[in-house]
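Open question from group meeting: does this chain pack into something compact, or does most of it stay loose? Before anyone orders reagents, we agreed to write out a predicted structure and look at it together. Recording both the input and the output here so the notebook holds the full record.
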Amino acid sequence: MEKKLSEFKYRESGIIKFVAGEGRVRRRLFDMGITPGAQVVLRKKAPLGDPLEVTLRGYELTLRKGEAELVTCVMDEGSDN
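Structure tokens returned:
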């Protein structure tokens, strides 16, 4: 099942499938390690849903909801729902 990173619930995990966006925004996401094939886990979500904190490639990263909206993931089978 595919899901946008911005739609993840607490402790859900998945594998990044596609990163949308253009130019600087996409390049910035790639520079932060958000690339296809990387596993990502949602660790925290602010009360209003922005920003989100994820664990990616062994470190914690904070993203705005708009940035997370550009990241499409394939959900892990064992992910908490």
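Observations to bring back to the group:
The helical segments are 23-31, 65-68.
The radius of gyration is 11 Å.
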